[in-house]
């Protein structure tokens, strides 16, 4: 086993070196080692990939579709993405010049930011939100500007956005990232709430990167995409991981104006060359013949959501009813005197329930914890029983 030569010990990227791993993953791995724990940590659908989608991947292998695809993805999949967006939101993206197939939503976020950010540029990030945005901005030399949305029920209002832009400098803010339905909160923006943001951004030299990967998982509300309101300045990030339980297939995509996609496509090509063929053919099948595959899963998630939110509030953890995704985000009672990390660790060790501390989702997440209900109802019911017993010991 080679031992690092001392002469290169300090030859390291000074931005990346001090960073830890994603706290979502860190706590998931840490808590998984506790015997008998029920894990409600990761956003990992507990469903299988639809059979017709699996068969499409197998067929591509049997037909020896094993060579490099076009760098931006096979044209059949890009056409399927374009068709899906047109069907769902009545927006039009040219599959040749306005769509990139990426290695999951994470790469879609990375190449989108890489196409925009220069060192010192600022990106507005409403928190609590998905944990990877902030480190990616930092790696690219940008400055994340975190905005706490908890006082406004997890909504970034137009008024707050304008205040932040005025404070940070319109010439320095190059983009903002909006994630909805939200991870970890389940908050879903209405058309009117999105219009507030559009009214602020439309005349400013900045993009909106909109991560809508949970768009197929909304409850009782119809998802409005930012692309419907401001396509000329919106960069859409989406994928198949959540809607079709295809997390391991790693297929995401970026859609946006052709000039932007040209630059993002360069970073994509330099980073990954092209996506995997079997996964692409599976995704093409999912978006062509499985556009409603998520409906059954969504109905089951809703049943779990209703149960877990009712239980959390009854036990004493203030929880807003999520309108999308598959998470609850609950407030830790102040009288417990525990930070979100302390609470999560104590619950895992003493109560045998794994949750994610709110601080993992940015500064606005402190004082909360996230539970994933992408788990069986049996596990959820047992977790609620354990949480109730654990909470009694704190009170």
UniProtKB/TrEMBL annotation:
CDD domains: AAT_like. It holds the Pfam family Aminotran_1_2. It comes from the Bacteria. Residues 37-387 form the Aminotransferase class I/classII large domain. InterPro entries: Aminotransferase_I/II_large (IPR004839), AspAT/PAT-like (IPR050596), NHTrfase_class1_PyrdxlP-BS (IPR004838), PyrdxlP-dep_Trfase (IPR015424), PyrdxlP-dep_Trfase_major (IPR015421), PyrdxlP-dep_Trfase_small (IPR015422). Its EC number is 2.6.1.-. The keyword rRNA-binding does not apply. Keywords: Aminotransferase, Pyridoxal phosphate, Transferase. GO terms for molecular function: pyridoxal phosphate binding; transaminase activity. This is Aminotransferase.
């Amino acid at each position: 086993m080679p031992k690092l030569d001392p002469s290169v010990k300090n030859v390291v990227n000074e931005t990346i070196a001090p960073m830890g791993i994603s706290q979502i993953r860190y706590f998931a791995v840490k808590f998984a080692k506790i015997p008998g724990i029920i894990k409600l940590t990761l956003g990992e659908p507990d469903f299988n990939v639809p059979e017709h989608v699996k068969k499409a991947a197998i067929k591509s292998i049997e037909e020896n579709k094993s060579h490099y695809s076009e760098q931006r993805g096979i044209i059949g999949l890009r056409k399927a993405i374009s068709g899906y967006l047109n069907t769902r939101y009545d927006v039009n993206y040219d599959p040749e010049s306005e769509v990139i197939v990426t290695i999951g939503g994470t790469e879609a976020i990375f190449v989108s930011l890489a196409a925009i950010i220069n060192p010192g540029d600022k990106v507005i990030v409403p928190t609590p939100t998905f944990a990877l945005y902030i480190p990616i901005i930092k790696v690219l030399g940008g400055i994340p500007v975190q905005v706490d949305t908890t006082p406004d029920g997890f909504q970034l209002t137009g008024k707050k956005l304008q205040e932040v832009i005025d404070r940070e400098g319109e010439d320095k803010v190059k983009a903002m990232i909006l994630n909805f339905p939200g991870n970890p909160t389940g908050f879903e923006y209405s058309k009117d709430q999105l219009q507030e943001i559009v009214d602020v951004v439309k005349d400013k030299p900045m993009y909106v990167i909109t991560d809508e990967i949970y768009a197929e998982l909304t409850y009782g509300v119809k998802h409005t995409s930012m692309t419907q309101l401001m396509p000329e300045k919106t960069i859409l990030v989406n994928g198949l991981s959540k809607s079709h339980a295809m997390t391991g297939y790693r297929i995401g995509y970026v859609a946006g104006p052709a000039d932007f996609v040209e630059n993002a496509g360069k970073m994509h090509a330099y980073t990954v060359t092209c996506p995997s063929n079997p996964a692409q053919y599976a995704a093409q099948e999912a978006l062509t013949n499985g556009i409603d595959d998520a409906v059954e899963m969504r109905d089951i998630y809703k049943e779990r959501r209703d149960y877990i939110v009712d239980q959390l509030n009854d036990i004493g953890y203030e929880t807003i009813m999520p309108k999308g995704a598959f998470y609850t985000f609950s407030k830790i009672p102040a009288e417990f005197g525990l930070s979100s990390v302390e609470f999560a660790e104590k619950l895992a060790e003493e109560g045998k329930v794994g949750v994610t501390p709110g601080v993992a989702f940015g500064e606005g997440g402190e004082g909360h914890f996230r539970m994933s209900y992408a788990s069986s109802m049996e596990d959820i019911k047992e977790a609620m029983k354990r949480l109730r017993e654990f909470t009694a010991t704190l009170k």
